[in-house]
Amino acid sequence: PTMAHSEALLVLENFIDGKFVPCSSYIDSYNPSTGDVYCRVPDSGKEEVEAAVKAAKDAFPLWSSRSPLERSQILNKLADLIEHDLEAFAQAESKDQGKTLKFARTVDIPRAVHNFRFFASSILHHVTECTEMPALGCVHYTSRAPVGVAGLISPWNLPLYLLTWKIAPAIACGNTVVAKPSEMTSVTAWMMCKLLGKAGVPPGVVNVVFGTGAKAGEALVCHPDVPLISFTGSTLTAQRIVEKSAPHCKRLSLELGGKNPAIVFDDADLSQCIPTTVRSSFANQGEICLCTSRIFVQRGIYSEFLKRFVVETKKWNAGNPSDPTVDVGALISKEHLEKVRNYVKKAQAEGARVLCGEGVDSLALPPGNQKGYFMLPTVIAEVKDESCCMQEEIFGPVTCVVAFNTEEEVIERANGVKYGLAATVWSRDVGRVHRVAHRLQSGLVWTNCWLVRDLNLPFGGMKASGIGREGAKDSYEFFTEVKTITIKH
Ligand code: NAD
Question: Which EC number applies (predicted)?
């Protein structure tokens, strides 16, 4: 990899106790669309995590004693400040992650703003329980209190979006936090730190340590003064977190991988289904945990679906993420691109048909992007259910299309993977969509749509896709400790 000579390297610093502090060693961070190193990220370890946890612990008594309304006002102020700099955040997210500027502008950063506004509002509306036992002269009620220092670990695919989805509820509830974003996408978290003081977030309430999972992440997971960990990332890393946190019996929220099916019945409205399923397969380069990667199409419409799906997919251009006509940006890293390409090769070796994209169509890139990590959206057909392409999370712009005959059969096949995060069902038969939705082993089921979210409702996965849920009530419950109090009069 070559260095970007024209511009100075961006050097990030940890944010501890309201101040930026340099680190003794750094990791190179790449611009995925050029292949250049453009940023240096602190390579934090035990020492930095220790300092951050101490700051968070010290800030806890005061922050947790503020009223929900005071905390809410601060969250709203922070939302306004991020929104004010939306364009700068979007540019930074696109450059750091490889995603299109269009996507960062319309999805990532607006959602980060909304996360703060949403929890600023929802924290004001929780009601605790109360029961009476008149015969015994007793009344019971529950009270909820923040837990303490929350450890927050987030992935590289939706960097600020997913980090703020944790920071917002954690601090709204009165906890203080130590956050560790992905070492591959740390820039927008660092930019947000610059706004915390201005928003009125007291020093020590939000601390951010940058670095790798193995060093900084594990130090956080193993720290005895961090009683809860909210993690979004891969199932493999989650297993390690469960293991490492076990001696401390920590409270864990785990949002993990997916292998999400789309089920298309022969009465589906294809004019809606096809463009939405192309989007659900390839949005953000297919690097969303909710992306569709197995499309089951009922036999009667299979060949028509396939033909129209490929035509629609070919409309998605890959290339320079800042180009407004581009829909598919760069993948996160060279290694990840190789991994995704290898899945396509394996499918071919097993006798599947690659209908468009990788290895079939040629990708023309502008001169500045020749070394970027690009690949065309790829559609594979005639893949066996037991193939690794149908079982493992690829997390790239690759989707598999297969045929099915009956409702019973497709439910079994859709459930036949270790994951259970999200599914889509396409049919105009109301009875059928309810039946199928109930039987799918999936934390989220979208019918005749995709990625329509009400943040009030639970988000999370079954089976290897996670433990716990996040959302207005769920995050409130996760980030608070409940107590039952009984009064006899
Ligand atoms: P990852 O598991 O490699 O890393 C996620 C985070 O964990 C990073 O910050 C990383 O540094 C840290 N980490 C790694 N090893 C660690 C360890 N031993 N201890 C503590 N922290 C550690 O995942 P990724 O590659 O960054 O992200 C992609 C994965 O995330 C995919 O599997 C995707 O499905 C999943 N994801 C899930 C959701 C969801 O809400 N369910 C959302 C987005 C992404």
Answer: 1.2.1.32
Counted domains in the chain: 2
Q: What 3-state DSSP class applies to 195?
A: helix
Write down the pLDDT at residue 4.
Answer: 47
Tokens of 156: 């590289």
**DSSP-assigned states of every residue in 81-147:** HHHHTHHHHHHHHHHHH---HHHIIIIIHHHHHHHHHHHHHHGGG----EEEEGGGTEEEEEEEEE-
- Token pair belonging to 335: 């290694």
- Are 251 and 265 members of one domain? no
Query: Does 2 reside within a domain?
Result: no
Q: How far is the CA of 338 from the centre of ligand 1 (A)?
A: 19
Q: For 322, how many CA atoms within 13 A lie in the half-sphere containing its CB? A: 13
Strand, helix or coil for residue 163: helix
Helix (H) / strand (E) element for 432: namely helix 430-439
Residues 245 and 299 in one domain: no
Q: 233: Cβ below 6 Å to ligand 1?
A: yes
Ligand 1 atom nearest 153 alpha carbon = 9
Amino acid at 424: T
Residue 86 and residue 84: Cα distance in Å, rounded?
A: 6
**How far is residue 320's CA from residue 327's CA, in Å, rounded to a whole number?**
9
On whether both 208 and 129 belong to a single domain, the answer is yes
Range of the domain at 100: 10-257+465-488
Q: Is 48 in the pocket of ligand 1 (CB under 6 A)?
A: no
Per-position DSSP letters for 146-159, written without gaps between them: E-SEEEEE--SSSH
pLDDT band at residue 5 using 50, 70 and 90 as cut-offs: low
d(CA 291, CA 259): 8
Alpha helix segments (H runs only) across 1-45: none
CA–CA separation, 272 vs 275, rounded Å?
6
C-alpha of residue 97 to centroid of ligand 1, in Å: 14
d(CA 57, CA 79): 25
Residue 312 has what pLDDT? 98
Measured distance CA(238)–CA(37) in Å, rounded: 29
Dist. CA 419–CA 235, nearest whole Å: 9
Phi, psi of 427 (to 5 degrees): -170, 155
Count Cα neighbours of 302 within 13 Å in the Cβ-side half-sphere.
14
Block residue for tokens 């380069």: 285
Would you state the structure tokens that stand for residue 423, as one six-digit string?
A: 């599914």
Pairing of strands 462-463, 444-447: unpaired
Here the CATH number for the domain that contains residue 329 is: 3.40.309.10
Model pLDDT for residues 258-282, shown as the tens digit of each residue: 999 999 999 999 999 999 999 999 9
Atom nearest to 289 CA in ligand 1 = 34
Determine whether the shortest distance from the Cβ of 333 to ligand 1 is under 6 A: no
